[in-house]
Write a structure and sequence with these properties.
This protein is an alpha+beta fold and 358 residues long. The chain has 2 domains: 126 residues, no CATH class; 215 residues, no CATH class. Strand 12 and strand 13 form a beta hairpin. Helix 5 packs antiparallel against helix 6. The longest helix is centred in the first third of the chain and has 21 residues. The two termini are 23 Å apart. It comes from Nonomuraea longicatena. This is Helix-turn-helix domain-containing protein.
């Protein structure tokens, strides 16, 4: 099933497995806590402002609609603890608010609901249960992480970058190494059956098979020529301006608005980064993802937003809810830097979301 259909939910003909999922969702709402009344409007608000009609369609005994994975994960988080209903109001707790026993119950519920969903859609259980998250590519196709190489003037100052040297280390020639290491390890972990390869951008370094895989681009248009070329093909209203010699320096531009990194006495205190996900212009059956900051810390922050254990679930849920049904989307984010340390962006915090498209 394609991502768009998965996000929107899929209307099913009446069938036992779909009805079984619908009945389980209704029982969670009406019987999970016998002394707490949870109405469809209350549930809709707790899940992010969903309509009564949508909740009702998920609970229907006649024409049930199968919810997307992200909504079932939210159900598991909500109903794993009665603390969600404290004070007479229903509230979806953040992952880091859950106690150990609540985490365990959340995972049990999540597994149950995803198994029911797999059966309702006619899929094998194994197809719905691999590690989930935004960096999971369920089709099992090859994944290519494409990084920039450091420019020649920087390489000239680096040791061990000459291939003729006995102590040559190829990784020293890569830009954004911290972002690369973070992302490569995470993608390998959540896609154990996929071929994951790292490639350096540049003429003659990439093949047609690299370009037509799931492509993840790290770094911006200044050093990464693949990012530069791809951005020219995307109908994206967000542009990167590398005005390093200008009065205010480089920025991201959206129409007449400009978003600049923040520096105090030459020290970076907040970067600006772009996260983009969409259908690849080089292969309609694969995805293209861009993680790009004005500085390296911004690139690292864009990556960490969806790998950091404390923030990745809430950021993933935000993206799925905000951009449901969109084939392509982009988010400009502020990346705080405190005491020279990158703070992972929290996209549920409106102040850290600078611009969203569409």
């Amino acid at each position: 099933m394609d991502t768009e259909a998965q996000m929107k939910g899929v209307t099913m003909e009446p069938m036992d497995d779909a009805v079984r999922l619908a009945q389980r969702l209704r029982s969670l709402r009406t019987q999970r806590w016998p002394h707490v009344k949870v109405t469809q409007p209350m549930l809709g608000v707790a899940l992010g402002g969903l309509s009564n009609a949508l909740i009702s369609s998920w609970e229907s005994d006649t024409h049930p609609k199968v919810p997307p994975i992200s909504r079932l994960e939210a159900y598991a988080t909500l109903f794993c603890t009665e603390r969600s209903a404290e004070g007479g109001k229903l509230r979806l707790l953040q992952e880091d608010e859950l106690e150990r026993e609540e985490h365990a119950e959340r995972e049990r519920l999540r597994g149950e609901l995803l198994r029911l969903r797999a059966l309702a859609l006619g899929l094998g259980q194994e197809e719905e249960l691999p590690a989930q998250g935004f960096w999971h590519f369920p089709d099992g196709k090859p994944i290519r992480i494409i990084c920039a190489q450091l420019p020649p003037d920087m390489l000239a100052r680096m040791p061990y970058v000459d291939p003729d040297e006995p102590d040559y280390v190829e990784l020293y020639t890569y830009a954004d190494v911290d972002a690369l290491l973070e992302l490569h390890g995470h993608i390998r972990a959540v896609n154990p059956a996929s071929e994951v390869r790292v490639r350096k951008a540049g003429p003659g370094r990439l093949t047609a098979d690299d370009y037509t895989a799931h492509v993840v681009l790290i770094g911006g248009v200044d050093w990464n020529p693949v990012t530069r070329s791809v951005m020219e093909h995307l109908e994206l209203p967000i542009q990167q301006r590398n005005e390093w010699g200008g009065e205010k320096g480089p920025c991201f531009e959206v129409g007449e608005r400009r978003f600049y990194p923040e520096l105090h006495d030459g020290e970076l205190v907040a970067d600006v980064a772009l996260f983009y996900r969409g259908v690849s212009p080089l292969n309609r059956k694969r995805t293209l993802t861009i993680c790009n900051g004005m500085y390296g810390r911004g690139t690292y922050g864009a990556v960490r937003a969806l790998t950091h254990a404390r923030f990745r679930d809430r950021n993933t849920e935000y993206l799925r809810a905000r951009f449901a049904g969109n084939e392509s989307f982009a988010l400009l984010t502020k990346v705080p830097v405190f005491q020279r340390t990158v703070i992972t962006p929290d996209w549920t915090d409106q102040e850290q979301r600078l611009h969203e498209w569409p």
